[in-house]
Amino acid sequence: MNTEALATAPPAVRLEGITKRFPGVVANHDIRITVEPGTVHAIVGENGAGKSTLMKILYGMQKPDEGTISVNGEERSFRTPSDAIAAGIGMVHQHFMLADNFTVLENIVLGAEPTTVGFLDTAGARRRIQELASSHGLHVDPDRLVEDLGVGDRQRVEILKVLYRGARILILDEPTAVLVPQEVEELFQNLRELKAGGLTVIFISHKLDEVLSIADAITVIRRGTTVASADPREVTARQLAELMVGSELPTPETRESTVTDTVELRASGLTMEAEGFRPAPKDVPAAEYADRLRREGRRLLLDDVSFEIHRGEILGIAGVEGNGQSELIEALMGIRPVHGQIVLGGEDISGWTTLRRREAGIGYIPEDRHRQGLLLEASLWENRVLGHQTMKPARKGPWIDRRAARADTARIIEEYDVRTPGVDTLALALSGGNQQKLIVGREMSGEPRFLIAAHPTRGVDVGAQAAIWDHLRNARAAGLAVLLISADLDELIGLSDTLRVLYRGRFVARLDPSDVTPERLGGYMTGAIAGTEET
Amino acid sequence: MPAGLYRALLTVAGAMAAIVLAVAISSVAISAAGASPQAAFAALFNFGETERAVVNGITTMINRAVPLFIAGLAVAVGFRMNLFNIGVEGQYRIAAICAAYVGTLFTAPAPIQILVIIVVAAAVGGLYALIPALMKVGRGVNEVISTIMLNYIAINLAAFLVRGPFTGVREKGQLTTSTPPLPESAWFPNLNVLFEMFGLPAPRGGGLWGFLVVAILLGLGVWVLLERTRFGFEVKASGLNASAALASGVNPKKMVISAMVLSGAIAGLIGLPEILGDKHNFGSNFTPGLGFLGIAVALLGRNKPAGIAVAALLFGFLDRAQGPLQFANVPPSVIAIMQGTIVLLVVVANEITSRMALRREERRAAQHLGTNTPVEVKA
């Protein structure tokens, strides 16, 4: 864009000092962003850096505690998304919000149906959609059913839907996460046309190479605040990664190695299809079946994932979210069926239920503690029992041993410094960090042999983070095998004995944490450095 | 004050406020119906002049409350894990006729005879509830829809059985058909002795149903099962957070089946107080609708046995007033209006009080954060 011509125009969006607090956590702190009109402005940051909260604030889904939002030079206060839409801001969500059994046209007008004397004005709607589509190069047949469309087309429908409501500023939340490379190129072409048409695009991503190729300006968010503005012509992916990850945080360094020779957990050839699990035919070995799936061109969420974890070892898995981490965890926990073999301490546990795996000594710190880790409306001691309901001290025959469970909860509160009025407090009254410490304490009790720690310090304050790192290190020294999955690269590099990179369901690199930089790791994670397992 | 006690007190206070409000709303309805609210509420508390009338009133109330209590328990077991067993209605009717019929096929000493009838009723109810459970687990059929459909089948099947295969001899001049009468060994002894202990006259009719004792034991059993056992914990966990339960090794399919069958088995007992204590057969005038009322009773009692007992007694108390209300020239349908408003308002009150309790706990937990000593950040 010609900057001189725009010099007088007010910025499309200007955020000043936006701060948003949740109980115990500051999600956004003093965010300052200026988005010039007619540009593609990228906002980059790690998972959990506060990008989504920021976008929710901008789209009126949440109200900031402090700070101002101005749109086209006018200060605005949004209470609902309708207010944001009225101000010309539209949001394209990462997960499409389309009705499958409606046509494209019906989906676009849904909620903003044009009427003539009470009847749906289909002809008018079609005309308007075709106008929008041709002027922005967004070609979709308005009469096709959405269920017949591919992912790229669905995204175009989402964009059209937003444009149809008169948006001049589009927020795209990780739009490329679901696309294959060719579709990404098409999307970028569309975005360039939108830009040429004078629209403003706010593009949220953590895929740095994509950001560099499409954005006119970049803002980096780390730990809930804006840390830098960058010009994509002058910055490299490595520098951006450095800005994203930062380096002023306490680094979680493991001191001497405690890795033993005993293999605690061995996974071989884990393969998972995207379209649901079908058991392999009896006479076909798992590896061969996986090969066949690959040859047939099925989308695989996990593709021949094999690894070993020794006693006293932390295996770190790096990867951008959505590259198979959740699937790997669910396969190891027995929540989701998978092809391949899992051996724990010499025993084949591939066919075991989740309960049996837990009883055999697998601990699990889930990536989303509210979804998988806690009963929010239950007391802390009941949360202590969760996952251990068949084990000592929580169980006594068919009974729940309430006294022992309470006593053990009190022990966790003491040892793990959980700040709470007592064991009868409901879990949801606690702050995120304290909830997480309770979970860590719970999963460490009962002498686990293998621990899955998924984002163990996500959304917790710095103090709790250091405490959780200490607990992980101590457990490792005591011989625990740990699978660590994290988006915090410092955490991964600092804690892990071995690092593997998961990209599109495959291990693409095995790295030594003692001589890897976050930038290089980031390169493998985003596919910027093509890697094979042998690296 | 401990968090648990505070929550309990708040709940009771909320329920009381809801009932007072419901009385006010009902007064408006009564006035609209052209009657005097004072007369109506006087009739509500008027158990009669004579001792005998008072005893009869109390007996009617408790006899009504016993099946409602069992129905509430049955519904609550499902509700606890977000399973909406709307099929209690069908389950208890089909169980009642099967048990009433099986009871006529043999004669054994009373304890055995009664025990067999109870077991048959529970088994039939449980098996009938197994159908929607299997449909849900196997094919993901929503249990609300399947149980509603199975209600129609059960109700009509019961109606067919009582006229066809299971029918007894109809006495001359009787309009209703029924199963053959149960032998006397299947008659559950009544509890009129309780009144006699206080020197009061025995109530008329079947008296105070002895099944009350079974219901109390059942309530205790359900409480112990839900609050103290591993099974109860898994039910609670599944209800509060299904994905956390799954990740914790709770098998969701097993839980759906066991909770549904347990709910159905309890539902199977709903008809027994009436059959064993009073009618001694299953007839075409068998009390309907208890399963649906059980949903309201469970909601009112917050799915807890003690709460359900209170709710069932409240419903029994209101239902008892049908007669006195008619004498006071108040349309008895006022009772249904009151029951409806009470349930609605209590649900609203529950929501409000639980939010209040929550905010208080959040404040208390935040205070603990306030007394925070800075954590040393170690590398």
Can you describe what's shown?
The complex is a heterodimer of chains A (about 525) and B (about 375). Chain A has about 525 residues and is an alpha/beta fold. Chain A contains 19 helices and 24 strands. Chain A folds into four domains: about 1-90 and about 170-250, 3-Layer(aba) Sandwich (Rossmann fold), CATH 3.40.50.300; about 95-165, no CATH class; about 260-360 and about 450-535, Rossmann fold (3-Layer(aba) Sandwich); about 375-445, no CATH class. In chain A, helix 15 (about 400-415) packs across helix 16 (about 430-445). Chain A starts with a helix and ends in a 10-residue tail after the last helix. With about 375 residues, chain B is mostly helical. Chain B has one domain (about 55-320): ABC transporter involved in vitamin B12 uptake, BtuC. Chain B is built from 16 helices and no strands. At the A-B interface, helix 12, helix 13, strand 20 and helix 17 of A face helix 9, helix 10 and helix 16 of B.
Short structural description:
The complex is a heterodimer of chains A (535) and B (379). With 535 residues, chain A is of the alpha/beta class. Chain A has 4 domains: 1-88 and 169-248, P-loop containing nucleotide triphosphate hydrolases (Rossmann fold), CATH 3.40.50.300; 97-167, no CATH class; 260-361 and 450-535, P-loop containing nucleotide triphosphate hydrolases (Rossmann fold), CATH 3.40.50.300; 374-446, no CATH class.
